[in-house]
Structure formats: structure tokens, C-alpha cells
Specification:
With 241 residues, the chain is α/β, with parallel strands linked by helices. The chain has one domain: Purple Acid Phosphatase, chain A, domain 2, CATH 3.60.21. It contains eight helices and eleven strands. The strands form two sheets. It has a six-stranded mixed β-sheet. The protein has a five-stranded mixed β-sheet with strand order 5-6-7-9-8, with helices on one face. Helix 2 crosses helix 3. It is globular. The two termini are 28 Å apart.
């Protein structure tokens, strides 16, 4: 049976071994049987550079590498791990895709992305996103000592959590008009993304035709997976043990 998996927002860290254990089981028991595995960003809770080599990051790379011998593994940067570079991806056997990529998913052109660029009502975040994706800012940050980057990452996460307390839910969600705009730009009737942590399947109209937006869930409380076959699509959960 042919099928493809999509995951996002795992937020892996050494502090959450339950997430890691669930993820490893998914790779070993499920992903190796797929036609392909797509990781749509925020694989890690934070990533401060490929030079921050730890036993944890190496173990994740090794697990992906093992899967890549059975099926191709693709990766799109998220807002937490946009600093991942080719060095670590090579270790993991992953192929990096553009932040908005159209794939042929069993005959249906499908746009895949992390999804943070669709949340245009969060103006402060979009300003940071533009800066963080510039040519100069990542180079500047990665040139800093690891100790400085660790402190900056901790400070940034604390500030982000504090700011989110005062944002309305709709501001942190995608902007409907932006979704339609992007889907029309790429001429697709199906979009798959993560980032918002609101797993669901939405129906909408694009270019006068019925379209579908599938939102992947996060892995904070369960292993959220999208399984697509030529005949069906389903959001599934892998239980923690």
C-alpha cells in the first residue's frame, strides 16, 4: 500500500524524553514503510547552530539516517529551527526543500510549508521573521560563541512566551486571505502546513473551486501525524508511553 507521512512541530529536546521516545517508535515502526516522510519545520524546540553538537542531536540525526535508507526524508525550516544547515541535514540523510514547495502527491499538486508566513496578523513576529531569514542576520548570530547563542535563545523563548499571553487567538492563527493568496499563487487546491498547533482539515474556495487546507498538530501531548494515500488522508495520533 502506498502512503506518505507528514509531521511538524515536534519540538524535540533532551528535556522531553517522552516526545523523543514516541518519535523514535514512529520512525522505526511506521516511517520506514512510507513512500516518503516530510518534516515541515520545528523539529527541535530550539536550534542554535550545527556546531552545537550533542549526543541528543546526533541520536536524532542517526535515527533519520536509518529511515532514509528505506524512504526519502524531506525537511522544511520552521521558526524554531531555521538555523539548521546542510551539515546536520547530511548527517540525517534529509533533503532540504524551499519554505513553500509544491509536490505531486499521488497526482494532486500539493503546497507544503511550515506555515508561519501565513500568520500575517502577528505583525511583531513577521518583522522578526523577515530579519531572521535575511542573508546577514543568521551569519551574524552563527558567528557568536555558543554560550552567547544559548543565552540569547533562552531569552528569546521567554520573551516569546510572555508576548503570546497578550495575543488574541486569531492573531496567532493563519490569515484566511493570505492562505487563499498563496494557494492561488501556486495554483493548488491542497495545502499542508503546521506551526499553529491546531490540527484540522479545512475546506475553502480557491479560484472558484473547492480546496483543502490540512493543519498538522504538535507533539507536546501526542504524536500528530498526517497519513496520505492515493485514496485517503487522515490525521492520526501516536500515543506516548
Amino acid at each position: 500500500m502506498s502512503f506518505t507521512y507528514f509531521i511538524a512541530d515536534l519540538h524535540l529536546s533532551a528535556d522531553r524524553p517522552d516526545i523523543t521516545e514516541c518519535f523514535m517508535r514512529f520512525l522505526q515502526e511506521d516511517a520506514i514503510n512510507a513512500d516518503a516522510l516530510y518534516v515541515l519545520g520545528d523539529l527541535f524546540e530550539v536550534w542554535i547552530g550545527d556546531d552545537d553538537v550533542t549526543s541528543f542531536s546526533e541520536s536524532v540525526a542517526t535515527a533519520f539516517k536509518a529511515v532514509s535508507h528505506f524512504c526519502p526524508v524531506y525537511f522544511i525550516h520552521g521558526n524554531r529551527d531555521f538555523a539548521i544547515r546542510q551539515g546536520w541535514l547530511d548527517k540525517a540523510g534529509m533533503t532540504l526543500l524551499h519554505e513553500q514547495t509544491v509536490i505531486d502527491l499521488y497526482g494532486t499538486p500539493t503546497l507544503i510549508t511550515h506555515g508561519d508566513e501565513l500568520c500575517t496578523r502577528d505583525v511583531a513576529y513577521q518583522k522578526f521573521r523577515k530579519k531572521s531569514r535575511s542573508w546577514w542576520w543568521p551569519r551574524l548570530m552563527l558567528a557568536l560563541p555558543l554560550s552567547v547563542r544559548r543565552k540569547a535563545a533562552q531569552k528569546g523563548r521567554a520573551k516569546s512566551k510572555e508576548n503570546q499571553k497578550y495575543l488574541k487567538p486569531e492573531i496567532m492563527d493563519v490569515t484566511p486571505g493570505e492562505v487563499v493568496k498563496v494557494m492561488e499563487k501556486h495554483n493548488v487546491a491542497r495545502l499542508i502546513h503546521g506551526h499553529t498547533h491546531r490540527p484540522n482539515v479545512h475546506c475553502l474556495s480557491v479560484n472558484g473551486n473547492t480546496a483543502t487546507r490540512i493543519v498538522l498538530g504538535d507533539w507536546y501531548d501526542q504524536g500528530s501525524v498526517l497519513k496520505v494515500s492515493p485514496e485517503s488522508q487522515a490525521l492520526e495520533n501516536r500515543k506516548f508511553i
